[in-house]
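Field guide to reading this record: the first block holds the primary sequence, the second block holds the structure written as discrete tokens, and the final block holds curator observations. Each block starts with its own label. This record concerns B3 domain-containing protein Os03g0164300, catalogued under organism Oryza sativa subsp. japonica.

BLOCK 1 — SEQUENCE
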Amino acid sequence: MTNAKMTFAVQFSERYINKYIGSPIDDLMVSMAGTTQSYQMRLKRSKDSRAMLTTGWNQLIDAKAFDEGDVCLFHFKEVDDVLVLKVHVLK
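BLOCK 2 — STRUCTURE
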């Protein structure tokens, strides 16, 4: 899979995520709930203020961490002034 990305709504991005993005791009550590797997991803702010997970999102898809039709819950949390993300998959 090439160039996969996860995009968050403008209103959600502006309220909860964008303040953590330095410049238009920053790094984000993403972990999967219930596993020890973590993935380094790029967090990007688009021109219309949407936050997007880009580089690294493919790793999560390729690891088959979830299937089509699964519901993913994205739990953003601030730890020592750094944004981290834990993904919960509901099958």
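BLOCK 3 — OBSERVATIONS
The CA atoms of residues 79 and 85 lie 10 Å apart.
The first helix runs from residue 10 to 17.
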